[in-house]
Specification:
Strand content: 15-25%
CATH class of the largest domain: Alpha Beta
Radius of gyration: 20 Å
Oligomer: single chain
CATH superfamily of the largest domain: HUPs
Largest sheet: 5 strands, parallel
CATH topology of the largest domain: Rossmann fold
Order of helices and strands: EHEHHEHEHEEHEHHEHEHEH
Length: about 270
């Protein structure tokens, strides 16, 4: 007998200024079934929150589509309460964060036969790390390194470009080493959170935290990964990295820092303000 396919799960989620709790919510919602994200248009987001979103709808859609927990995403112009007939016809269900639960929406959904699941704060706690799985034998292995504080569309475009070279292993800098290289106030997010966020991107095969020091803080992890390529962007290009790759027979690739098509350029420095 063929196993029943779980019903699709729908969330209406702005993804404005993406945070780890947003991604944890999407991960927990995806555990209920294939996840479809309704991303409010700029006009709808402004109407719902009383203020224009910080990031345009196209960029928020790009973020949604980049996450491994999301099966489909679309920009929508009307709130989900006005789309319940469509959800009911498709046999879909809704998921909401418990603090966003709305009695009116739940009542309307129940009247249409659309189940509603609340994702609690407890369910979203922590930053789980998936079990490692080796890539196919002989497949190219690509390593990238960096801080990845405040994950944004510029990071995701870089991850996508680096992953074009092979199975992508990301090594995020430890809190200790980021503070050493960047100074007081860095990083804003602790290493477990940054590892989780980078690891949640579809392009990333596996994410680790560095255990070394200095610009080559990922050297112990690189020894484990045995990469064929070390990919950096122009900001991350360092003589120490070039020399390390030359000595170890690793192809060193420097990518231009380009925004995704049609999106504004983003940097963590500009977003943080320092």
């Amino acid at each position: 007998m063929t196993a029943a396919v779980p019903a699709a799960v729908v969330v209406e989620f702005g993804l404005d200024n993406l945070k780890s709790d947003d991604v944890r919510f999407l991960e927990q919602a995806a555990a209920l079934g294939p996840l479809r994200v309704r991303v409010p248009s700029d006009a709808l987001a402004a109407a719902q929150t009383g203020a224009a979103p910080l990031f345009p709808a196209a960029e928020r859609l790009f973020l949604a589509e980049s996450l491994r927990f999301v099966d489909a995403a679309q920009i929508v112009d009307r709130p989900v309460v006005e789309a319940l007939v469509d959800l009911a016809a498709a046999g879909e269900r809704l998921a909401v964060r418990e603090e966003d639960a709305d009695a009116g929406l739940r009542s309307a959904a129940e009247a249409r036969g659309v189940p509603v699941t609340e994702i609690s704060l407890l369910a979203r706690a922590g930053f789980p790390v998936p079990d490692p799985v080796d890539p196919p034998p002989g497949a190219p292995r690509v390593v990238i390194t960096g801080c990845y504080d405040w994950l944004h569309s510029g990071h995701i475009r870089f991850l996508m470009d680096a992953a074009a070279y092979g199975a992508l292993y990301a090594v995020v800098g430890s809190d200790r080493n980021v503070a050493l290289l960047k100074g007081p106030g860095h990083p804003l997010q602790h290493e477990g959170e940054r590892r989780y966020m980078v690891g949640a991107v579809k392009s990333v095969y596996r994410c680790l935290v560095s255990s070394g020091t200095g610009w080559m803080d990922a050297e112990p992890e690189i020894a484990q990964i045995r990469p064929t390529h070390y990919v950096v962007n122009e900001d991350g290009d360092q003589p120490q990295k070039r020399e390390f790759c030359r000595e170890h027979g690793i192809q060193y690739v420097v990518l231009q820092r380009l925004p995704h098509a049609g999106l504004p350029a983003r940097t963590s420095t500009a977003l943080r303000g320092f």
